[in-house]
Amino acid sequence: MVFEVTGNPGLTKRGQDLYKRSNHYSSSVVKEGKRGSGTVYMFEKAKQNRMFQDVVDQIQDAILEGRMGQGDKLPPERELKETFQVSRGTLREALRVLEQKGLIEIRLGVGGGAFVREVATGPVTEGLGLLLRRHRVSASDLAEFRKDLEGGIAALAARKAREEDIALLREFLRDMAQALEDPFDWEAVISADNRVHLALGEMAGNAVYRTIQATIHANIHPYFDRYVPRDKETLEGNYKDLCLVVEAVAAGDASLADQAMQAHLARYDGYIESADAADMQSQGRETSIGFTDIKGEDHAADKPGPGHPPGRSPGRPVAKPRQFTSDPGRTPHPEPDGSPSEPSGR
Asked: Residue 204 and residue 154: Cα distance in Å, rounded?
């Protein structure tokens, strides 16, 4: 494949400028004798031992390094086959992989072809979102990660926030305070809390932080439902924490903003520990009740009556062993005492 350095309709002006500035624009990539001097070869023959992967890598590098910009059209299939010296099947498979990565878009019909897409964060955030929605991330791991992530966001916001940003944060705090008044609204408090966090992410001005944080907050509500207590007193503590964060950001104190945010999120460690401890205690009570019942029966059985062998209480029939029928259409149903009923007609 070839691109004219100037005047090529297949390459945007931005792509041409970036390409001219790149180290790929040198005498080593200018081929003489074909289509005139000054013609720059962006791609070359694929390596024989890894042809498919090399085609993917060459096109991907051209996009990620800025030599091809959003909206640029790749050359026709015939020309790419000739340039890479690969089969149609190998080329099409490479293009499918690039499309799955979100780097190109295949358009059909007149004027169709392979076009460079804007590099999107969708595939990354979708995977993280699925992990959270399917509860593949433990609450403690998520809380630990958020402390580092959002502490850094608060510190950046303290360095970059403008007056209008501080005003917006204080407006969200007023919403939170109002939701804490009678009638207390747990959902509204949590919603205002989230808006404060996401606004700080915008103010931080870091696309990586902002993208990951937004994905977490879009999928975190089930964790709040599970762990955050629904009483007013608990959420008043959250509100006071965020007031300290906002004041540190307003003062431009990055270190204090980081510390205040980490202290705020450390509350969630306490919520998780309390909820897990309550679950364990509840399970322990259920197990204890079960063992007490069994133990009581055993004690009664250890007191033989006249003419009864040890281990069997007087007047109590021997329990029949649990029976399972081999007939797939007949499943024994438990009686109230837990023993299976006998199928009728047997």
From this structure: 7
d(CA 166, CA 170): 6
Contact yes or no for 301/312 (Cβ under 8 A): yes
Rounded to whole angstroms, the Cα distance separating 169 from 336 reads 61
The structure tokens listed for 270 are: 């306490």
Both tokens of 46, joined, read 């694929």
Backbone angles phi, psi at 2, to 5 degrees: -125, 150
Lookup: tokens for 185: 């609204």
Q: How far is CA 198 from CA 119, 172, 203, 211, 281, in A?
A: 23, 11, 9, 10, 36
CB 203 within 8 A of CB 152: no
Cα separation values, 106 from 3, 80, 152, Å: 20, 15, 39
Model's pTM, two decimal places? 0.55
* Helices assigned H by DSSP within 44-137: 51-64, 77-84, 88-100, 122-133
Cβ(44)–Cβ(58) under 8 Å? yes
| pLDDT tens per residue, range 129-158 | 888 888 888 999 999 999 999 999 999 999
What percent helix, strand, coil does the chain show, rounded to 5? 60, 5, 35
Tokens of 95: 């293009």
